[in-house]
Amino acid sequence: MFQYRIRGGNRLLGELKIGGAKNAALPILAAACLNESETIIENCPRISDILDTIEILNRVGCETEFEGNTLKVRADRKLNCEIPAEIAEKMRSSVLFMGAFLARCGRAILPAPGGCNLGARAIDLHIKGLIAMGAKIHEENGKIFCETDGLTGAKIKLSFASVGATENLMLAAVRARGETIIENAAREPEIIDLSDFLKKIGADIRGAGTGTIVIRGKKSLSKPVLHKVIFDRIVAGTHLVAAAMTGGEICLKNVRPFDLMPVAGCLKEMGCFLRSEGGDIYLRAPERLRALPRIVTRVHPGFPTDMQAQFVAALAIAEGKSEVVETVFENRCSHVGELRKMGANIRLTADKRTFLISGAASLRGATVAAHDLRCGAALILAALAADGESIVQNARFVERGYSGIENDLYSLGADISLENTPVRDII
User: Fold this and answer.
1) Contact 39/225 with Cβ under 8 angstroms?
2) Which residues contact residue 281 at a Cβ distance below 8 angstroms, ignoring those fewer than 6 apart?
3) Distance, CA of 326 to CA of 397 (rounded, Å)
4) How far apart (Å, rounded) are the C-alpha atoms in residues 280 and 391?
5) How confident is the model at residue 424 (pLDDT cuts 50, 70, 90)?
6) Could you give the residue numbers annotated as active site?
7) Least CB-packed of 54, 88, 90, 192 within 10 Å?
8) How many Cβ atoms are within 10 Å of 50's Cβ, its own excluded?
């Protein structure tokens, strides 16, 4: 198994180009099943979630070719719409094939989706929306069986602006009969990127990026298409926080600074200087970060839940007291116990949604374990700022969302390496 060995204390300095977004690429890969022609996806991140999704595509009958960061997909043959359990159980995004397969094949079989353990994360919004469009869905022997004689457009109001549910309903609606209206839709940049891709293969979509998305279904979608995935705003935010925690100075390239506003705003309040120009964003950290009175995670355009753990790590060394409230996931707190091993003073309220943080002058190196993707990122950042050497176990979680993070940080001056160890991963 793999782990990160990190010796803290080095300032991060230099430039870094940010690659494609995991959370944009994954639904686009599912959408490629709808295109009965060739799809070419550029800027596709080489991370384990993408590789597992490619394996799903291969297993259901698509042809794929992945070279560098360019993925080619052909889905012009009859597809087998049953997703292998051993792959789907690794990641939650496998549920997106439900909408795509119902639209393309009229059926889908999949196990309950996996991924990081962040709480219940029920897919009831996905299922209710698809049923409203005419799907019949039931669970039997640990599998979800979906079928339809033909999806029909419907007006669907989501009780929560779920990104996954919005994407699944978009994938289903593009080939449904008539018009589908999704109200209280998620507004993330990744939703817009999915919409842009679907338009390129012939879909009729309006309103992506707003609270209401309107889709007029087409009988078939078949256009050769080239699409470049947008930058990963969470990877970019993680590197900004890494520089801030180490007193560093970095420039991130290939980004859209507007999409980083919630993160950049908090870093400015913590004393960092930030400047953006074109597709670049520059950060210079203060001698010591300042605490923030309160951060509350929200759906976009609010503060992203995927940056919560990284900011908890940063606030653990900021001067003063801070409060962070998690409103999106009910169990996104696994990093707290690990950060405490490094000397962080963090207290959780009884509901495990509010983090009360008293900034320490410094953290100390320790052996800690990632329990999910963003927990792992937070522990790496804490190790970069800590005194002495740290081991961050369970690198497999981090590799689900960060392509070669150890190489990127090393290029900025971090003392970090990824090493193989006979020690079993900590669960």
Assistant:
1) yes
2) 236, 240, 251, 252, 255, 257, 260, 264, 274, 275
3) 21
4) 32
5) low
6) 116
7) 192
8) 26
Distance from C-alpha of 129 to C-alpha of 151, rounded to nearest angstrom:
11
| Six token digits for residue 11 | 């300032």
Number of Cβ atoms within 10 Å of the Cβ of 117:
14
Q: Which whole number is the average pLDDT over 224-245?
A: 98
Helix (H), strand (E), coil (C) string for 58-106: HHHCCEEEEECCEEEEECCCCCCCECCHHHHCCCHHHHHHHHHHHHHHC
Q: Is the pLDDT assigned to residue 291 strictly greater than 80? A: yes
Per-residue pLDDT tens for 181-233? 999 999 999 999 999 999 999 999 999 999 999 999 999 999 999 999 999 99
- For 1-50, the pLDDT digits (tens) are 899 999 999 999 999 999 999 999 999 999 999 999 999 999 999 999 99
Residue type, 343: G
Contacts of 343 (CB under 8 A, 6+ apart): 360, 362, 363, 364, 386
Reported as a single tens digit per residue, the pLDDT across 171-182 is 999 999 999 999
Tell me the sheet residues that pair with 115. none
What are the structure tokens assigned to 325, written together? 């409230």
CB 307 within 8 A of CB 263: yes
Phi, psi of 326 (to 5 degrees): -100, 115
Indicate the burial class of 351 (C-beta count within 10 angstroms; 0-12, 13-18, 19 or more): exposed
What tokens were used for 302?
A: 């609010």
What is the largest distance, in Å, between two alpha-carbon atoms of the chain? 63
In the sheet that 143-147 helps form, which strands lie side by side, from edge to edge?
Answer: 107-111, 143-147, 136-140
Rounded to 10 deg, the angle between the 48-60 and 97-105 helix axes is 20
Please state the separation of Cα 396 from the chain's center in Å.
Answer: 15
- Rg of the chain on CA atoms, in Å: 21
Distance CA 321, CA 342 (A): 18
Stretch among 78-92, 177-191, 316-330, 409-423 having the lowest mean pLDDT = 78-92
Distance (Å, whole) CA 191 – CA 123: 18
Q: How far apart are CA 44 and CA 28, in angstroms?
A: 10
